Amino acid sequence: MRIAWITGVLGLAGVADAATGEPEHVGFFGAAADSLTGDVYAEPSRWRPLTLGTLFTEGWDQAWASPPNGSGGAPRQGWIGAQDGVFYRLWIATYAFANDFNDHGNRHNGGFTLYAPLSRRLELRYDFGIVSNKPLDSNDYHTAADDLTLTPRVILSESEDVTQSFSVGFRAPIGDSENGQGIAAITPAYEIWANPWRGLVLRGGVNMFVPYGNDSFDESGARNQFIGNAAAGYYFTPHDATPFGDLVLYVGTTVDHLTDDRGPNTTSFAVTPGFRSHLGCNWYLLGGVGVPVTHPKGFDVEPTVGLMKVF
Fold first, then answer.
1. Which of 103, 117, 147, 215 is buried deepest, with most CB atoms within 10 A?
2. C-alpha dihedral (67, 90, 146, 223), degrees to nearest 10
């Protein structure tokens, strides 16, 4: 298993499989239709590894199939407060409560995220929601839409035990600056998922949050940020042990460093312990509690709960 994990990180695994079951080439639109509407879970044998060396030549016109568990038995799943790394076909609704947000009341945030695979290499992620908090110059809560983010994601390489991906998030400033929204930004990110041993999953990534436009700087105070994330968790139960199927307990960590010259180059650190459980019929319950460790703190604690449907 250790050899498989190392070759997966290097994007070398799976070369020999290309001749034993190459997925059908159906064109870009055919691949998108099959990936979004086909039964991508019925035949795990349809999945094939992808290598970094074939990034520009393989997978773009072939339908996505859900990858198998890692050789240790851990499924490829998403966690609150952790980077993705892998592709999914699902939607998730979340609610987050930030206590003592900016030392001025609380913040309520309802979010909706959709993962839509278009091929073995390409996926689109959509994020939008509603946020409510007290602006700094008011004691009344202000409720408005979140900014909308569209994120194309690309698989760099994928073996049984390791997936690497790259994405660029495009944030549209449709929200209100009174809620800390209204920010135009791009966010390039590298992410990795790995199952090195039994039910243990390691995942993480690095990205840059880059706002642009005068409104983003002047009204919201948005700044360039380097963000690093690492998480580790262990799966304790099989998928069918509902309502505690695929039960994973994990801890995520996030470091955030301001990199521009428009203010102090502070670094913040937060920890997010969390869980995920299969309730049955491809419904999942997720939870996590964000706890900032360094000062200044934007909030005291932020519990988040999510209800997810795989389709």
1. 117
2. 0
Residue pointed to by tokens 């642009």: 212
Per the CB < 8 A criterion, the answer to whether 152 and 168 are in contact is yes
Distance CA 311, CA 306 (A): 16
What secondary structure letter does DSSP report for 19?
G
CA 29, CA 60: separation in Å to the nearest integer?
10
Q: Which helix (H) or strand (E) holds 34?
A: helix 27-37
What is the number of domains present in the chain? 1
Note the pLDDT tens digit of each residue in 112-163.
999 999 999 999 999 999 999 999 889 999 999 999 999 999 999 999 999 9
| Interval 35-76: pLDDT, tens | 999 999 988 788 999 999 999 999 999 999 999 999 999 999
* Among the listed residues 13, 19, 63, the one whose alpha carbon sits nearest the alpha carbon of residue 41: 63
Please name the amino acid found at residue 25.
H
Sequence-ordered list of residues with C-beta below 8 angstroms from that of 261, at least 6 positions apart, any chain: none
**Residues ≥6 apart with Cβ < 8 Å to 218:** none
Region 273-284: mean pLDDT is 98
Range of the domain at 75: 2-310
